[in-house]
Prior knowledge:
Layout lengths: L5 H13 L7 E2 L7 E3 L1 H15 L2 E6 L6 E6 L2 E7 L7 H12 L5 H18 L17 H12 L8 E4 L8 E3 L1 E4 L4 E4 L10 H16 L3 E3 L2 E3 L3 H7 L5 H17 L1
Parallel strand pairs: 1-3, 3-5, 6-9
Antiparallel strand pairs: 2-7, 4-5, 8-9, 10-11
Helix pairs in contact: 2-3, 3-4, 5-6
The site of zinc ion has 6 residues, from helix 6.
Amino acid sequence: MEQQDFWKWAQRRAEKKRGATATGDLDLSELPPDLRLSIPQIQSLHAELGEQLGKVALILTDNRRRMVSVRKKKGRHRLRLHHMFVGCGEDVVCALADLARGGEQLDGARETIKDYISHNRDEISFDVEPEELEARGEVHDLQQILERWRDHLDDESLDEVLITWGRYGRGRRTIRFGSYDFDRKLIRLHPALDQEWVPPFFVEFIVYHELLHALYPPKQASSRRVVHTPEFRQMEKRFPRYEEAIAWERRNLPRFLEG
Ligand SMILES: [Zn+2]
């Protein structure tokens, strides 16, 4: 499966599982294409909100400035939530439902939500300070992998690209295996990939994918920014073990998300 089809696939799966519109709409289209989430956890968040509020339209976002927004339209609740809420506990779900219902005594609910955000903020942070750059992991050496690809791809625009392991901890609900910072020309890999059971070819695949972001910048197509352009996808498929990498990811994603 191509990564660009991931959300479509996830959504189809989600729809199939919960049976048509039992809990209302679930919109994953605003999530960044490189983010991975646990589908069962998305479904249970949606279902738990549905139990409290009836039919709920749930839109998951990557908006850090506005992590929660609730609306009621024609008697139906519509919640826009940052993806960090996937996997949250019952108390947080109740607080979200209280907030959606409205009313006057919402201080407790707001407090619970604020608390949850401040405790989980680190999980979504991808920032690494310049002095923290560290390409050498415990298992995989990213610098070596980067050099090999640079030789192979032989393109001047890759000369200044830097690489580092991300700084945050392991075990989470969402994962971005890698990211590319266009301003800093910096590739960051998720530290969960620096483990013995993660095969080198998969780490190489992620580095390759991020390098392609440097070679094929996003394009604006009408109102949409296309990050993985057709050229990008074509190049990505030229990774020697492409099918194997995609299959490995699908098989092992739960292990990353629940570990
Ligand atoms: Zn990408």
